[in-house]
Amino acid sequence: MFPTPTAKLPQRFALKDKTIVITGGARGLGLSFATALAEAGANIAAIDLNDSPPSELDKLQALGVKAKYYAANVQDYDGLRNTIERIAEEFGSIDGCIPAAGIMRDKPFLEHTAKDINDVMGVNIIGVMYTVQHCAAQMVKQNTGGNIVCISSSAGHHGCAPMTCAAYVASKHAVLGLVKQVAGELAQHGIRCNSISPGTMRTAMLKQIFEDTPGREQLLNSGSMLKRVGEPDELHGAMLYLMSDASSYMTGNDILVDGGKL
Ligand SMILES: NC(=O)c1ccc[n+]([C@@H]2O[C@H](COP(=O)([O-])OP(=O)(O)OC[C@H]3O[C@@H](n4cnc5c(N)ncnc54)[C@H](O)[C@@H]3O)[C@@H](O)[C@H]2O)c1
Asked: Which tens digits make up the pLDDT trace of 114-138?
């Protein structure tokens, strides 16, 4: 089911004519991955909550790929399945899946409300399970194999001090567990499943936290060997590696890109 790649290395990174579903694709890391993968030749189906698409998505068409936006909530099991089935019809196949939609609540554990906990778990692990299941079901139906790259976090490997985000940390540990189990079950279908664990990356999610809590940025900077937060495009190499045949012998595993956590 997994042929040993014979192409030369640069060709093994190519994603021409592959269709990749990205949740949280309207901004932040999801949109940044969409741009990088389109540059490698992939067609992009971006899913997010807003009714209207981000302007950046249209610009990807100039790269000669198809890029389309779909409004859906990853917490809506049936609605998400319908959206993913529509994507498969409109693009002809689904070859890759990046469940990048995620939220964070930065408040002490004892102040987490039931809603905070349910919201974070609902998007970050339940929504990821729904997305991975619907995309994998389509890949199995096509019998084409496929590639799933989940987004955990350095917070999925340890805590995320100096921030206070217990539900988030728990959800990101859960993503790593999901990847391990799902990879084992889907290997028979030629589907690989891995994850990337970013450290602190400069996106809107983080900007809000920096604005709400002065001094947070300096504290987070000092927690890495490189003494700075990462830029979204510093994850592109890891994403392209995992999403392409370049990583053909890797599944059920994770790449931690965190600037060297201290
Ligand atoms: N930025 C970081 O430092 C960092 C670090 C490690 C991991 N991550 C993870 O990377 C992923 C992307 O984070 P980001 O920083 O780009 O965040 P972001 O807030 O900039 O983007 C997240 C996107 O997810 C969408 N989204 C949220 N809930 C949704 C739902 N129910 N259905 C559909 N879409 C939904 C949002 O609308 C938004 O467009 C998340 O899973 C996050 O946990 C981020």
From this structure: 999 999 999 999 999 999 999 999 9
